[in-house]
Automatic annotation (TrEMBL):
PANTHER family: PROTEIN NRFC (PTHR43177), PROTEIN NRFC HOMOLOG (PTHR43177:SF3). The lineage of its organism: Bacteria, Bacillati, Bacillota, Clostridia, Eubacteriales. Pfam families: Fer4_11 (PF13247), Fer4_4 (PF12800). The keyword 4Fe-4S applies. Keywords: 4Fe-4S, Iron, Iron-sulfur, Metal-binding. This is 4Fe-4S binding protein. PROSITE patterns: 4FE4S_FER_1 (PS00198), 4FE4S_FER_2 (PS51379). Residues 3-34, 46-77, 78-107, 114-134 form the 4Fe-4S ferredoxin-type domain. It comes from the Bacteria.
Amino acid sequence: MAKILKVADIDRCIGCYSCMLACARTIRKSFSPSRASLQIRTAGGFQSRFVAEICRGCDNAPCALACKYGALLVREGGGVKFKEDKCVGCGECVEACIIDVLHLDEDKKKSMPCIQCGTCVRFCPHEVLAMEVSTNE
C-alpha cells in the first residue's frame, strides 16, 4: 500500500527545519534547506504559526501528466516517481502543480518533486509530519 506525506499536527512545529535539512541532505545531496521538496514557513505576523508546503500526492498527478520527457511518472496510490536523468528542466511540471509546491533546482536546472519517501518524517523531532496510507488506491 502506498503512503502519502501528511501534516499530522502543524501546531507542534517549532521551525527547526530538521525535515527540510534531512530531505535536502538525503535526497538532493545538498546542505541547503532550499533544496528540500517540502518547505516550512511562517504564516506571517509577529507571533505567527508555521505552515508546511508539502506535496499532497495527487492521484493522477498533474505534474507527471505534464512531463513530456518521462521524468515524472504517476505513482500508484498518488504522487510521483522521479527519473532525474530524464528531466530537462523545462518547468512544465512546476506550472502544472495545482498547489504550487513543486520547484526547479536553480543550480541543477532539474525538478525537485517529493517522492513520498518519508525521510522528512523520520527526522521531524516533534511528530509534525506523518506518512499515511493513501486513500487514492
